[in-house]
Amino acid sequence: MARSIEMANRAIYHVAGEDDSLSGMGTTLTAIRFSPERQRAYVAHVGDSRCYRFRDGEMRQLTKDHTLGAELGAKGKMATHLSRSVGISESVEVDLMVDAPRVGDRYLLCTDGLTKMITEDRIQVIVTEGEIGACVQGLIDEANENGGKDNITVALIEIRDPADAGMV
Fold first, then answer.
1. Which of 28, 67, 33 is nearest to 46 (CA)?
2. Any residues with CB less than 8 A from the CB of 1 and at least 6 apart, and which?
3. Strands 154-158 and 58-61, sheet pairing
4. What would the pLDDT profile of 83-109 be if each residue is shown by its tens digit?
5. In CATH, what number does 2-165 get?
6. How far apart are CA 123 and CA 90, in angstroms?
7. Where in the chain are the domains?
């Protein structure tokens, strides 16, 4: 996963370098991949998009924001300034982590368009109450109702028993 992100980073960086109108172009990225038997979840991360795991009523943020506020304790407008993103420089440092999924776990991948508009407490309530599709729509709707100041991307994955579901 890291190698793929590094390749994407170089491609974005070089395209932006060839066109002045794209100068400074970059993005954040949070990705998850499960091993074939779902014993492991591999998370790759750059920026301030996030991955959360919900298990037994508990919500845990698996990623750490790459912002000046999170890394250096910056305040005000500087707090949300990205310290790492894909495409801004020729190389990128990718955070990689491994988690051990259990049946019933839910993994939420989301952009800051969600987390800046809804509190983590409210995210937990929405994600743990109901079917996947309704939860995703509820998150997006509430973020938009709260002002929706940025784009909102949400992916919610539930780990199911392979004998019951046949898929993740």
1. 28
2. 31, 33, 42, 44, 94, 96
3. unpaired
4. 999 999 999 999 999 999 999 999 999
5. 3.60.40.10
6. 35
7. 2-165
> Crossing angle, helix 132-145 and helix 120-127, to 10 degrees?
150
Q: Which of 160, 82, 79, 154 is nearest to 123 (CA)?
A: 154
State the DSSP string of 93-157.
--EEEEE---TT-EEEEE-HHHHTTS-HHHHHHHHTSS-HHHHHHHHHHHHHHTT--S---EEEE
CA gap 64, 98 in Å, rounded: 14
- Mean confidence (pLDDT) of the chain: 92
Q: What is the pLDDT of residues 108-156, one digit of tens each?
A: 999 999 999 999 999 999 999 899 999 999 999 999 999 988 899 999 9
pLDDT-derived band at 18, boundaries 50, 70, 90: very high
**How far apart are alpha carbons 101 and 40 in whole angstroms?**
6
Q: Would you state the structure tokens that stand for residue 133, as one six-digit string? A: 């599709």
